[in-house]
Amino acid sequence: MEAMRAVQILNPSGEVTMPRPERTRVMCVANQKGGVGKTTTTVNLAVALALHGNRVLVIDLDPQGNASTGLNVPHHTGVPDVYDCLIDSVPLAEVAQGVEGIPNLWCVPATIDLAGAEIELVSVVARESRLARAIAAYPGHFDYVFIDCPPSLGLLTVNALVAAQEVLIPIQCEYYALEGLNQLINNINLVRQHLNPSLDVSTILLTMYDRRTRLADAVEQDVRNHFGDKVLQAVIPRNVRVSEAPSYGQSVMTYDPGSRGATSYFEAAQEIAERGVKESR
Ligand SMILES: Nc1ncnc2c1ncn2[C@@H]1O[C@H](COP(=O)(O)OP(=O)(O)OP(=O)(O)O)[C@@H](O)[C@H]1O
Ligand SMILES: [Mg+2]
């Protein structure tokens, strides 16, 4: 019911479609800076695309388990999780859980076990490509796979970068936003050179934009000058409904589909979907 209500409010005429890509798009949502909106972006884009007919998998690759919480997927100790896939080669299909209330959306949760993976991976064979192998063994099921990264550039994030074709970088509209981005871009370049030649920073999303400040505007201009058309037209405003939604185990798309947070994530998802079909033409 909530999913239907969300679609009716976000897309009342039903005119907006989110075309499905020809091949699975694996998107790594990364920024080693903490609290910039990686998880919020992963959850809300995934729900928006799933509500509009795409088959979507979210892989929670952060030991904090925030994406699992946001999608209301059980992730207490003992639940099979992404750790089992990375360290013990358990197939993703055995670990993925359907997200309640959102057809076409699945989540591979993270439990606290994942906190040890960063260290345990060091001595594992093919340690950088464990996630890539797990995803490759689960082909054809999904239109989108979103990987929610932790705020670091360690082996978990490297696994996500090796597994993905695209990187989506959320950038918070604040003063230090661009600091540290060089380090992320350098790491992406290293992964491209040595492990995943087709990796592309395809999408930049400006998050937590506060229209009342001139600073937000200046950051937006900076980011647009630097990254050009990789930056989505849609900008996510700072919106209290966005931050309330996870405590109800919901995305803002279903929690308050009329809010500015929901409509802007809806627009961002639509842009991403349209770019995906343009590029494959
Ligand atoms: N557009 C928004 N408006 C208001 N609050 C937001 C918005 N986006 C995110 N938040 C809040 O900001 C905090 C950080 O967001 P989020 O957890 O998505 O960032 P993150 O980059 O995943 O963090 P981490 O680096 O810890 O994984 C959360 O409390 C979230 O609810
Ligand atoms: Mg997060």
From TrEMBL:
Q: Which CDD domains match?
A: ParAB_family
Q: Which SUPFAM superfamilies match?
A: P-loop containing nucleoside triphosphate hydrolases (SSF52540)
Q: Where is the AAA domain?
A: 25-200
Gene3D superfamilies in the cross-refs: P-loop containing nucleotide triphosphate hydrolases
Pfam families from the xrefs? AAA_31
Judging by the UniProt lineage, the source's domain of life is Bacteria
The entry assigns this protein to a family as follows:
Belongs to the ParA family.
Q: What role is this protein assigned?
A: May play a role in septum formation.
Q: Which PANTHER family match?
A: P-LOOP CONTAINING NUCLEOSIDE TRIPHOSPHATE HYDROLASE, PARA FAMILY PROTEIN CT_582
What is this protein's record name?
Chromosome partitioning protein
